[in-house]
Amino acid sequence: MSYKVVSYKLVSYKAVKEYNQILFPTTLLEFMANFNTHLSGGFFVSAITAIIGYKAEILDHEQLLLCTAIGTLGGLLPDIDSTNSTPVKIAFNLSSLILAFSLVIFWKHSLPLIPMIATWMVALFVIRFLIFKVFMKMTVHRGVIHSIPYMAMLAMILVYVNYYFLHTPVIASWLYGLFLFIGSMVHLILDEIYSVNLMNMTVKRSFGTALKIYKQKNGLYFLLVYSILAYLIYYAPPFTEFWQRLTDPVTWLFLKGELL
Question: Buried b / exposed e across 37-52, counting CB within 10 Å, b at 16+?
Fold first, then answer.
């Protein structure tokens, strides 16, 4: 009889413990934000921001969708330095396809069929396997890539690509870069939030490694990033028109009147 009582108490304790873990999942706060968290966070913030810009008539209907997509991509971007990162695999796969087909289009009238197919296959192989492996060996998770200046540099590169190569209007070019940066900042902020255990009021060692502007261990890399960023800012596409459009008081007065 006593044995049954003890057994009952043990079972009851386990049941209560499991029940408490369901109600108060403290372990959820002990891990870094995962892929789905970053994807959802980047999408939600980018979509809300894009809708605001659309209602203020800063974005048209195409830019509404494109800015949301770019911001969502930005929400995954900082994890390209992770060895087992889904975003980096997707990025390298897409890059290999884009480059390979770009070469096919560029050399359509210069190469015969067989060399063209061979070029396409070589481009896919080089990016998806060789460059990918070199990139994985050179990068460290939460290193220079996982930082504010690196994300700002990528945002500026996107502005350059759109304005100088794709001949996108200057306002749209800056908007795309801005949304990429916003999405990446959502990612870094989520990483910092998940490094704090709010239930036990403790801070993980990873706190401060995401939302950073400098890390002494990677000092030379940060110096290079800041140098590139300074160059990109100095020779950036015209900024005045974009800033005037973004800060036009008439636009925001109109939006204020349309809140409800």
Answer: bbbebbbebbbebbee
Indicate the pTM of the whole model: 0.68
Residue identified by tokens 């990612």 is 187
Q: Which residues contact 96 (CB under 8 A, 6 or more apart)?
A: 123, 124, 126, 127, 128
**Encoded amino acid at 97, one letter:** L
pLDDT, average across residues 57-61: 87
Instruction: Enumerate the domain spans of the chain.
Output: 33-82+141-260, 83-140
Residue 56's closest CA among 247, 185, 241?
Answer: 247
Question: Which has the closest alpha carbon to 175: 75, 245, 252, 73?
Answer: 245
Question: C-alpha angle 82/185/28, rounded to 5°?
Answer: 65
Spatial neighbors of 188 by CB under 8 A, at least 6 apart, are 78, 146, 147, 148, 151, 210, 211
Q: Which of 20, 81, 5, 74 is closest to 45 using CA atoms? A: 74
User: What is the spatial distance between Cα 142 and Cα 133, in angstroms, rounded to a whole number?
Assistant: 18
Q: Would you say residue 73 has pLDDT above 50?
A: yes
pLDDT, tens digit, for every residue of 7-38?
Answer: 434 444 344 344 444 443 444 334 456 767 87
Where helices occur in 161-248 by DSSP H, the ranges are 170-193, 219-234, 240-246
